[in-house]
Amino acid sequence: MDSYFSLLNLAPTFALDADALERAWREASARVHPDRFATASAAEKRVAMQWASRINQAYEVLRKPVKRAAYLCELAGHSVDAENNTRMDTAFLMKQMQWREELEEAAGDATALQALKTTIDAEEQALERCLTELLDSKKDYATASEKVRQLMFITKIQQEIQSLIA
User: Fold this and answer.
1) How far is CA 24 from CA 10, 58, 104, 136, in A?
2) Where do the domains of the chain lie?
3) Rounded-to-integer distance, Cα 92 and Cα 57, Å
4) What are the CA-CA distances from residue 5 to residues 51, 82, 145 (Å)?
5) Cβ burial, residue 51 (10 Å; 0-12/13-18/19+)
6) Other Cβ atoms within 10 Å of 155 Cβ, number
């Protein structure tokens, strides 16, 4: 089975150009669009729908950094296994605890919530730069798997903050 990258004719890298991904998805989607198969047999229509579904699934995984990083690790045989493996370095665990405390204290205070969001956004950007190096340059998938779990936590707390700001 083709990887999501090969399905969209993209290099398997974490540092993926968002515009190139969008173009690749649109081109692949156009090739299997239902309008192209309007006069096709039922079996051909079904296959086209399966391809369209797979192309959309590839796009959804590759467009989100956390999902793309986890996918690259899995392709290399290093499952992130976030449900069963919650091991993280002590420094990051301390940051988690600090952020959780700040989140509790900031509830209802839009300025404090925005400040926390800015801090966590900066941490996310640093983590994504680290993942670019680990995945694209060093090919250190074991370390990258741990960083992906950290990015998963960051994504979750960002969603919580956003729901409180909105």
Assistant:
1) 8, 11, 42, 20
2) 4-63, 90-165
3) 31
4) 14, 23, 19
5) middle
6) 15
> Tens digit of pLDDT for each residue in 114-141?
999 999 999 999 999 999 999 999 999 9
Superfamily assignment of 4-63 in CATH? DnaJ domain (1.10.287.110)
Residue 81 has a pLDDT of 86
Could you tell me which of 130, 151, 126, 125 has the C-alpha nearest to residue 140? 130
Backbone angles phi, psi at 124, to 5 degrees: -60, -45
> What secondary structure letter does DSSP report for 29?
H
At 154, list the tokens.
Answer: 């960051």
Q: What is the CATH number of domain 90-165?
A: 1.20.1280.20
Cβ count near 165 (within 10 Å): 12
In 3D, which of 47, 67, 66 has the Cα closest to residue 57? 67
Contact 148, 70 (CB under 8 A): yes
The whole-chain average pLDDT of the chain stands at 95
Q: Show the tokens assigned to 12.
A: 């398997």
Q: How confident is the model at residue 87 (pLDDT cuts 50, 70, 90)?
A: confident
Is it the case that residue 21 has pLDDT exceeding 70? Answer: yes
